[in-house]
Amino acid sequence: MNAPAPPLDGPPATAAAKPRSAVVRDALGVGIAVGLSGFAFGATAAGDGISVPQACVLSLLVFTGASQFALVGALGVGAAPLAAATGAFFLSVRNAFYGLRLSQLLRLPTTVRPLAAQWVIDETTAVTLAQPDTATARLGFTVTGATLYVLWNVTTLLGALGASALGDPAAWGLDAAGPAVFLALLAPMVRVGARERATATVAVVAVLVCVPLLPAGVPILVAALAAPAVLLVRRDRRERGDAR
């Protein structure tokens, strides 16, 4: 008989077990809510001159909404394909960091990891981190990933085919569903203090300064440097205080 799955590193070891039905319900809710954003992507891609097959291939192979929107948006305003792809790539780099964290939490077999990597995005990461143990984390990751992948690709096709009927995708606000769900799931896990407020302030200022100057996707990477920058400043101040 296998030993019980050890608790995740994030939540406390004493966290109560979460019913599987609750995990499935939450995962389906996230997958369905965010999967509908595929309508907006499909319509946006078609409006920017991307063919229906091209839009569908992007959703099948790239499957990270922010990068897909950045790519078609850049192409739509006349950016060179290489520049557009570079911006989209930079924006998707964060998924690699998610993967490093999730590989420790999910402990998936080596043969499964390349397939699971396709589903490492904001929403699956948020659902996984919200679970109290490895078993429910795997369940949440799988249900969220499968639901979102299928629905995102179906709605991409429908959105691209019915772009004219949908009208302006921005008016729907569907592209904001992903970030909103991600923040809502992680908000209870964040302890706000002086350090967190300073980090958020530095990140916001960095994004506002960099957006007009750098390609799409790069400002968010610059903002990610806010956390180590704040930690270095605080450590330097602490060391100066100790030296006195």
Strand fraction equals under 5%
Report the end-to-end length measured between terminal Cα atoms.
59 Å
Mind summarizing the main beta sheet?
none
Order of helices and strands: HHHHHHHHHHHHHHH
Question: If you compute it from the alpha carbons, what radius of gyration comes out, rounded to the nearest whole angstrom?
Answer: 20 Å
Q: Which structural class fits the helix and strand makeup?
A: mainly alpha
Q: Stretches where pLDDT falls below 50 for ≥5 residues?
A: 1-15
Helix count, DSSP H or I runs of 4 or more residues: 15
Give the helix proportion (percent range).
Answer: over 70%
Number of strands: 0
Apparent shape = globular
Average predicted confidence as pLDDT: 79
